[in-house]
Design brief:
Helix content: 40-55%
Order of helices and strands: HEHEEEHHHHH
Strand content: 15-25%
Shape: elongated
Structural class: alpha+beta
Number of strands: 4
């Protein structure tokens, strides 16, 4: 009898857990993007992955495409050398700048930067080592994300009508999917704005 009771409790607990909404769906969402054009595509992908990791560590969703806010990553090659050794080694020093921006108003919310080094038997491997060496646990990164997240929340709280009007304009232009995406990106930490935007999502979905 105790065994049956225990099984029933486990089933109920599982059902309860599965009924809970995914918290990540309603976090502040910022779209990571690499704006540097002259780095290997593999380096761009590695930077996107690193930036998503930074977001995840600091309660920000970097996996949702938010049309209003982006985390832009820019890479400057400070030094690039090839050693005279056998085999030759490629050595890089990179300056990497992270910027959280309000795309709608072209405003900068938060900026931080770091400098990293990498070396490898080819340039791709040198970039990979440099990007992997970015230390996301440095205090400046946490401060950077916290400041940006706070300003994003302030925007949604104070400029919700602007968000909704942007969505209405997109909807009227036949870009309903983009309009809904804009509205669904409003985080639950801004409850009034999210409620109004979800009502508009329902309206657009009819």
């Amino acid at each position: 009898m105790k065994l049956i009771f225990g099984i029933v409790l486990c089933i109920l607990a599982t059902l309860s857990a599965s009924a809970q909404p995914d918290a990540n769906d309603c976090q502040v969402a910022i779209t990571p993007t690499v704006v540097s054009k002259y780095i290997p595509s593999s380096a761009s992908k590695a930077l996107i992955a690193k930036t998503k990791e930074l977001c995840s560590q600091n309660n920000v969703n970097g996996d949702i495409d938010n049309p209003l806010f982006a985390l832009k990553v820019n890479v400057d090659v400070i030094d690039k050398t090839i050693t005279a050794t056998a085999p030759p080694m490629h050595s890089l020093i990179l300056g990497i700048t992270f910027t959280i921006v309000d795309i709608l108003n072209n405003s900068i919310y938060s900026v931080t930067s770091t400098q990293v080094k990498g070396a490898g038997q080819n340039e791709t491997k040198a970039y990979a080592m440099a990007i992997e060496s970015i230390n996301l646990n440095k205090p400046n990164f946490k401060q950077f994300i916290t400041q940006g997240r706070t300003k994003v929340e302030e925007f949604y709280t104070n400029q919700c009508e602007q968000v909704m009007q942007t969505a209405r304009d997109l909807h009227s232009q036949g870009q309903t999917e983009e309009a809904i995406k804009t509205l669904q990106a409003v985080p639950t930490s801004c409850p009034d704005c999210r409620k109004n935007c979800m009502q508009l999502v329902d309206e657009f979905s009819k």
